[in-house]
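Q: Given only this backbone (192 positions), what sequence would you predict?
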């Protein structure tokens, strides 16, 4: 795979449009995919946590979330196309789910934030089949994973902050064929 190395993290080098074309294809074929949107904090944290680095580099897509990554790539002499943020990817996935009438499960953030996120999706993207949601402050993974398996979502959006969300996705992604993405604090912004 053609990836660009920034301090050990292996980034995909797409334009946002190319990335979206890959996602469209993945959704149409109901592929199992794991997206990491890596900002400079994630790169630095992966540098110190080899288990986390391995999880990041084993993801299907590692996207440069932040101008710091683009600048870093330029100064290392391996320029990348453009920044692609987690927030914009979240929006693209929800818009695409609305267009293609897909099933979405959302996990993470505080109870009031995930509820507001669910309400925003229902109101602004009425053709999304929102199959379930849960806040990000739970002790037992099992009931949540069981629900995801039962509801068969096309897309699972996980907002537990890094590295927790990437550990969670890496552990459970093969229980359900979907596009899985860690979206950090995006629900706090999206719902507001
Ligand atoms: N979060 C969560 N469970 C946790 C820790 C964090 O659901 O155990 C949520 C938090 O409410 C926020 C998101 O994860 O919506 C991102 O958290 P934070 O800002 O700490 O992480 P970052 O954005 O740096 O990944």
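A: Predicted residues:
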């Amino acid at each position: 795979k053609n990836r660009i190395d920034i301090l050990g993290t292996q980034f995909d080098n797409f334009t946002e449009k190319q990335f979206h074309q890959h996602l469209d294809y993945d959704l149409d074929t109901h592929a199992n995919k794991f997206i990491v949107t890596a900002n400079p904090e994630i790169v630095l944290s992966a540098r110190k946590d080899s288990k986390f680095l391995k999880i990041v580099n084993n993801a299907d897509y590692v996207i440069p979330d932040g101008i710091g990554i683009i600048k870093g790539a330029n100064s290392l002499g391996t320029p990348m196309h453009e920044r692609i943020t987690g927030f914009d990817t979240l929006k693209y996935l929800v818009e695409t789910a609305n267009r293609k009438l897909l099933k979405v499960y959302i996990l993470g953030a505080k109870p009031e934030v995930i509820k507001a996120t669910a309400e925003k999706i229902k109101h602004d993207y009425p053709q999304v089949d929102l199959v379930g949601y849960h806040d990000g402050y739970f002790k037992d993974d099992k009931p949540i994973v069981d629900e995801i398996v039962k509801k068969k979502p096309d897309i699972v959006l996980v907002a537990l902050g890094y590295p927790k969300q990437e550990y969670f996705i890496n552990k459970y992604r093969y229980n359900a064929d979907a596009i899985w993405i860690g979206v950090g604090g995006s629900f706090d912004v999206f719902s507001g």
